[in-house]
């Protein structure tokens, strides 16, 4: 794209805002270097990446490239034979870990996010490099004993040598013969060697080597001859440790150098993913939508129109992305199949230039893969080039006036533009004699139209209004001005030219009436009639818009009232169900008393050896009452699905839980939930999720025979089952399987699952539970019960 146009339309400011959403330096550089593409395939892929990133962040808002660092300088140092510091190595490890986590996530989500997966699948580097760095460097940047066997041996010997040295020096400090000679009873260090603080006046009393003295000269720091060999031994081990640590760092640096290409490619891929997340976050903050991209192909209607280049610009409620979203006035810019040039007229500061910049900038954003601040359904062509001449082109250095600067810029644009370009010209023909400027403006616009170049221009020349009205392919547009407040409204009206408000504004500001009338008499009667007619058209359009706004307001009020009535009906239904449930509870209590009395009476009759036939009718009646009590209070709804055609679920029924894809027996019924015995488990489930097992289905209403079994396309995904057995898997394999299973279980709506990991050494159990702690789908987890496997099983409750 033309570099000058990018700056003219303030595209770099968009990139700077985009960079603010990036998480690390490499993606920030990518954001600032993002250029619009003129390849529709590339642009559609970019838009798909942004769309998928936006969808992914809705479901996983915590997903980031957290931990990634710009380690390119470290990689370059390693490639040139340099030795990386522990901090550098930790940064490399953190970046590779971030990349590995992203790749695992997208490996599980490849079917849902194919555009993002096509980027993430390019991540490739040896996983052993992460393990090698972890084994050698601690999280605090210290080289661990486990880095090498030699280092472990050296450090063990150092500890022994250190203990011996300090023990011998401590005995010397504690010796009563030496105590009077010492300034303090302590052991200190000078130049890496352990020494004692000897009083200067007792120099020579202890055979020693002087290493330093205090500032006052009263204290000498001496190394007793008796510990010289031990000090030497300890110092030699320190040097050996230093050399081995350097060798370890050099070895790790060499390994990184060997895989530099893969690591640099991984950094680039992580940056691309981070940039995609940044585009999504920016789109979310802008309330932006994905534009429909239209290829530059002439339709039959456009071919019949003549020179139409086939471009499409349909922007609905478009907003300039750099203006305050709370105050910016949205505009509609729609060019039909016969129009490819727009002439905008209207007062200064009315929004003409902002309209041009909005269209140009949104086209650049769309071709860069960014969503645009406009309503969904907006359409844009992918232009080969966009050229803009906006603003003051005056140059003192080049001795160019404003007019000369504009003409110079336009000449350059004319030499480069073609039918696949979009040309934007602000204040066409301004800055010179009005008559000559208008003639030049008409000639330029005619030239662009004859070449079939899509053009947007603003002007103050009234001659261009008539030109646009009478020329095929061109349409007038105007920005409106409120004569009451003497303020622009910033509304764009396509199809009508702008009005000349000079006399009206002068009159409102208090210009004497005789001067206004004299000025009007100087105008052509034809022009006056045209202006009066234009005023009337604008007035009628304002009335129509006000009527439409009033109708929209009335419609919203009706929808609000409808919603309130629905809420009130819902509350009434809740009250009805509460009353019925209360009555059912009371009836159950009384029926239980009756059954208790029947049992007592039965016992008395048996003891008295009296017949029991008299109790049978009462018993039957009580059973019928209990059966009615067991029926839950159903919520009344206008929409009844085909499940309502089947008989109601009762206590003791064998049912199938659709969400778990398993069978069980109903042991308790509530208002909306039931308790189902599944094996040794008792599960609480919504009644709507249960269906009577086929072997028990009966009493189907006659009307049901007319309905066919139509599978629903809106059901939950199929259940993966309520158990996952990880026994026999390695830790990394188990974590991958666990994460895939939890994703499927969550999407299927399972309330809980059982993870079987066995007891063994407890290592796999520890890894599984650590992973569950950080999984966003998990609500809580606990060990299985005695009959479920105890510590060999973890029961996981999932979020709704």
Overall description:
The protein has 800 residues and is an alpha/beta fold. The protein contains 22 helices and 23 strands. It has a six-stranded mixed β-sheet with strand order 10-11-12-8-13-14, sandwiched between helices. A five-stranded antiparallel β-sheet has the order 18-17-16-15-19, with no helix packed on it. A four-stranded antiparallel β-sheet has the order 1-2-4-3. Strand 16 (662-669) and strand 17 form a beta hairpin. The longest helix is centred in the last third of the chain and has 83 residues, at 525-607. The protein is flat. The two termini are 49 Å apart. Mean pLDDT is 82; it is low at 393-400, 638-645 and 697-716.
Strand content: 15-25%
Major beta sheet, strand line-up: 10-11-12-8-13-14
Mean pLDDT: 82
Major β-sheet profile: 6 strands, mixed
The number of helical runs is 22
> Could you tell me how far the N terminus lies from the C terminus, measured between alpha carbons in angstroms?
49 Å
Helices and strands: which structural class?
alpha/beta
Radius of gyration: 42 Å
The counted number of beta strands is 23
Helix content: 40-55%
User: Which outline best applies?
Assistant: flat
Helices and strands in order:
Layout: H1 3-8, H2 11-19, H3 25-32, H4 40-59, H5 72-79, H6 86-108, H7 114-120, H8 128-136, H9 149-174, E1 188-190, E2 193-199, E3 208-213, E4 219-224, H10 228-258, H11 260-286, E5 292-294, H12 300-304, E6 313-318, E7 331-334, E8 341-345, H13 352-367, E9 379-381, E10 385-389, H14 402-416, E11 421-425, H15 434-450, E12 454-458, H16 462-470, E13 474-482, E14 487-494, H17 502-508, H18 513-522, H19 525-607, H20 613-630, E15 654-657, E16 662-669, E17 673-678, E18 681-686, E19 690-692, E20 723-725, H21 731-748, E21 752-756, H22 763-774, E22 778-783, E23 793-798
Parallel strand pairs: 5-9, 8-12, 8-13, 10-11, 11-12, 20-21
Antiparallel strand pairs: 1-2, 2-4, 3-4, 6-7, 6-9, 13-14, 15-16, 15-19, 16-17, 17-18, 21-23, 22-23
Helix pairs in contact: 2-3, 3-11, 4-11, 5-10, 5-11, 6-8, 6-11, 8-10, 9-10, 15-16, 19-20, 21-22
């Amino acid at each position: 794209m033309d570099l000058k146009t990018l700056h003219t339309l303030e595209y770099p400011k968009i990139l700077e805002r985009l960079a603010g959403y990036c998480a690390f330096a490499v993606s920030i550089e990518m954001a600032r270097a993002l250029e619009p593409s003129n390849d529709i395939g590339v642009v559609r892929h970019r838009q798909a990446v942004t769309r998928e990133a936006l969808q992914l962040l809705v479901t996983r808002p915590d997903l980031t490239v957290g931990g990634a660092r710009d380690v390119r300088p470290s990689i370059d140092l390693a490639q040139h034979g340099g030795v990386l510091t522990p901090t550098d190595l930790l940064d490399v490890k953190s970046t590779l870990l971030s990349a590995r986590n992203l790749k695992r996530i997208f490996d599980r989500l490849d079917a849902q996010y194919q555009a993002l997966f096509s980027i993430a699948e390019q991540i490739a580097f040896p996983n052993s490099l992460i393990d090698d760095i972890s084994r050698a460097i601690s999280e605090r940047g210290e080289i661990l004993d486990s880095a090498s066997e030699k280092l472990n041996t050296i450090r063990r010997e150092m500890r022994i040598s250190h203990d011996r040295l300090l023990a011998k020096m401590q005995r010397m400090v504690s010796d009563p013969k030496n105590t009077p000679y010492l300034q303090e009873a302590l052991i200190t260090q000078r130049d890496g060697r352990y020494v004692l603080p000897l009083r200067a006046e007792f120099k020579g009393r202890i055979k020693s080597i002087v290493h330093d003295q205090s500032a006052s000269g009263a204290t000498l720091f001496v190394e007793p001859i008796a510990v010289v060999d031990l000090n030497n031994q300890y110092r030699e081990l320190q040097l050996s440790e230093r050399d081995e640590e350097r060798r370890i760092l050099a070895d790790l640096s060499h390994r990184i150098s060997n895989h530099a290409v893969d690591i640099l490619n991984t950094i680039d891929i992580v940056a691309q993913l981070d940039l995609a997340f940044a585009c999504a976050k920016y789109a979310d903050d802008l309330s932006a939508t994905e534009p429909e991209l239209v290829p530059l192909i002439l339709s039959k209607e456009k071919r019949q129109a003549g020179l139409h280049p086939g471009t499409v610009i349909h922007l609905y409620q478009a907003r300039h992305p750099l203006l305050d979203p709370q105050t910016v006035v949205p505009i509609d810019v729609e060019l039909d199949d016969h129009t490819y040039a727009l002439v905008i007229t209207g007062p200064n500061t009315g929004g003409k230039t902002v309209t041009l910049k909005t269209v140009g900038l949104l086209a650049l954003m769309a071709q860069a893969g960014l969503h645009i601040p406009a309503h969904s359904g907006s359409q844009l062509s992918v232009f080969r080039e966009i050229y803009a001449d906006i603003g003051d082109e005056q140059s003192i250095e080049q001795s160019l006036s404003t007019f000369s600067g504009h003409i110079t810029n336009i000449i350059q644009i004319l030499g480069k533009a073609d039918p696949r370009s979009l040309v934007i010209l602000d204040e066409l023909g301004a800055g010179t004699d009005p008559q000559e400027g208008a003639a030049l403006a008409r000639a330029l616009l005619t030239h662009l139209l004859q070449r079939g170049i899509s053009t947007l221009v603003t002007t103050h020349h009234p001659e261009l209004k008539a030109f646009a009205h009478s020329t095929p392919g061109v349409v007038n547009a105007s920005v409106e001005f409120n004569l009451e407040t003497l303020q622009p409204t910033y509304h764009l009206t396509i199809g009508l030219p702008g009005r000349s408000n000079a006399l009206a504004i002068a009159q409102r500001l208090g210009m004497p009436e005789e001067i206004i009338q004299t000025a009007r008499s100087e105008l052509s009667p034809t022009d006056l009639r045209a202006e009066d007619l234009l005023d009337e058209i604008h007035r009628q359009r304002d009335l129509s818009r006000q009527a439409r706004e009033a109708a929209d307001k009335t419609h919203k009020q009706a929808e609000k009232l409808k919603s309130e009535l629905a809420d009130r009906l819902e509350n009434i239904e809740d009250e009805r169900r509460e009353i019925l449930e209360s009555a059912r509870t009371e009836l159950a209590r009384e029926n239980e008393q009756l059954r208790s009395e029947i049992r007592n009476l039965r016992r008395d009759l048996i003891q008295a050896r009296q017949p029991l036939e008299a109790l049978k009718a009462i018993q039957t009646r009580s059973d019928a009452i209990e059966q009615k009590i067991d029926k839950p209070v159903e919520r009344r709804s206008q929409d009844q699905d085909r499940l309502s055609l089947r008989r109601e679920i009762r206590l003791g029924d064998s049912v199938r839980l659709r969400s778990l894809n398993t069978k069980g027996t109903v042991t308790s019924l509530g208002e909306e939930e039931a308790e189902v015995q599944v094996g040794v488990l008792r599960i609480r489930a919504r009644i709507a999720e249960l269906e009577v097992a086929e072997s028990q289905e009966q009493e189907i209403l006659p009307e049901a025979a007319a309905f066919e079994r139509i599978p629903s396309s809106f059901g939950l995904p199929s259940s993966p089952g309520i158990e996952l057995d990880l026994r026999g898997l390695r830790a990394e394999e188990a974590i991958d399987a666990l994460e895939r299973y939890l994703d499927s279980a969550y999407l299927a709506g399972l309330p809980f699952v059982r993870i079987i990991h066995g007891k063994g050494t407890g290592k796999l159990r520890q890894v599984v539970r650590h992973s569950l702690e950080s999984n966003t789908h998990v609500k809580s987890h606990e060990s299985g019960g005695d009959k479920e496997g105890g510590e060999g099983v973890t029961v996981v409750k999932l979020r709704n």
